[in-house]
Amino acid sequence: MALVKPLTKFSNGAPKFGSNPGSPKTRASSMLRMSARAETAAAAAKKTPKKAPKTPPKETLLAPRFYTTDFDEMETLFNTEINKNLNEAEFEALLQEFKTDYNQTHFVRNKEFKEAADKLQGPLRQIFVEFLERSCTAEFSGFLLYKELGRRLKKTNPVVAEIFSLMSRDEARHAGFLNKGLSDFNLALDLGFLTKARKYTFFKPKFIFYATYLSEKIGYWRYITIYRHLKENPEYQCYPIFNYFENWCQDENRHGDFFSALMKAQPQFLNDWKAKLWSRFFCLSVYVTMYLNDCQRTAFYQGIGLNTKEFDMHVIIETNRTTARIFPAVLDVENPEFKRKLDRMVEINQKLIAVGETDDIPLVKNLKRIPMVAALASELLAAYLMPPIESGSVDFADFETQLVY
Ligand SMILES: [Fe+2]
Ligand SMILES: [Fe+2]
C-alpha cells in the first residue's frame, strides 16, 4: 500500500509529531514504544521498560487509514458461478507471479542502518522517524485488509484468495522492514495495539478497488522516484532503506496490476457515468491528500534533496497516466490550473493548522475554521469539476497487465 490514503472528512489539523517521542501528548506516543536497545538515558528503560500510555491514536484527515469492507459482497463479486467476467486463466497467471516471490530475499538488513540512523540528528532525525512510522502504518493497513480478504474469499474463489494472502505477505514484509528501521532509532511501532485501537474506515468493495488501486500505483511512483533521485544524487543518501525501494516498488506495482485485473472482472465499476464520477473523486482525494501531507513535511523531502512540490507533481502526473489505462476518467492534472488549485489548498491548510495551534478555546477555533474549510471545499470542488480526461480501456481485450520497470 502507498503512503497516503483517500480524503474522507475534514481534519482538525495536521498530525503532529512531538519533539519527545515518549511524550504521552503525541499521537506517535500511543503507538511507539522505546526499544530495549536504547542507549544512555534509555538504558534505565531497558531494565524497567517504560511503556507509553496506550490511548487510541488521533484520527485526522491526512493520517494513514485502516480499511474494512463488505466481505459478503466481495464473496458475491468473486463467485465464478455468478460472475462470468472472471478470467480464471489471467488470475492463475497472476497467482504464479506472486508465488514466484521475487523479493523473498530482498529485505535483508545490514549494519549500515544503525550507523546511518545514529548520524541523523536534530529535526531531520524526528522527521525520519515520522516517515518510518507513517509508512509502516500504511503498509500494515494493506496487510490487514489483504489478509482478511484472503481469509474470506478462500471458499468462493481460492485463486483470488491466495493472491490476496500473498499480497498480505508482501505488505507484512514491508511493514516489518520499516518497523526494523524504527528500531535503529530505538523505537518500535506496536502493531498489535494499532490493530485493535485504530478506527477502521468502511468502504464498499467498489470503492476499495478504486482507492487501493490508486494507493498501490502512487506508492510505486513514490518509491521509484525517490530511488532514481538518490541513485543520481548519492550525496543525499542518508539512510539505507531507500536502496531497497527499486525492488520494493515492484511489489506495489504488481499489487496495483492485480487490482486492475479485479476491476476488469467487474466492468460495472468501470463503464458507466457513476464510475467516471467516482474515479475522478478518488483520484482527487488521493492526490490532494498526498500533496497536503507532503507539503507539511517539506523538511523530509529537502533532507533527501527533493523539492517537495516538484516531486509530488511528478508522482501525481505519472500515477494519473498509469491510472488512465484502467479508470474510465481521470483528472487533467497536467493542466497548470490543477497545480495552482493544489497550491491554494496548501495555503488554506496551513492557515487551518495555525488556528489549531493557537491558545483559543475550541469554539473560537471552530468559528475561525469555518471560512477556511469553506474555501478548501470550494477549491476541492473546483478541482473536481475541471474538465476531466476520458480514459480507460473500454475494449478490455486490448488491455494488457503491464509492469513498469
Ligand atoms: Fe507495500
Ligand atoms: Fe502494496
From TrEMBL:
Keywords: Chlorophyll biosynthesis, Iron, Metal-binding, NADP, Oxidoreductase, Photosynthesis. GO terms for biological process: chlorophyll biosynthetic process; photosynthesis. GO terms for cellular component: chloroplast thylakoid membrane. Belongs to the AcsF family. Residues 20-29 have a biased composition (Polar residues). Pathway: Porphyrin-containing compound metabolism; chlorophyll biosynthesis. GO terms for molecular function: magnesium-protoporphyrin IX monomethyl ester (oxidative) cyclase activity; metal ion binding. It comes from the Eukaryota. The keyword Signal does not apply. The keyword Iron-sulfur does not apply. Residues 1-59 are annotated as: Disordered. Residues 130-263 form the Rubrerythrin diiron-binding domain. It catalyses: Mg-protoporphyrin IX 13-monomethyl ester + 3 NADPH + 3 O2 + 2 H(+) = 3,8-divinyl protochlorophyllide a + 3 NADP(+) + 5 H2O. Its cofactor is Fe cation. This is magnesium-protoporphyrin IX monomethyl ester (oxidative) cyclase. InterPro entries: AcsF, Ferritin-like_SF, Rr_diiron-bd_dom. The lineage of its organism: Eukaryota, Viridiplantae, Streptophyta, Embryophyta, Tracheophyta.
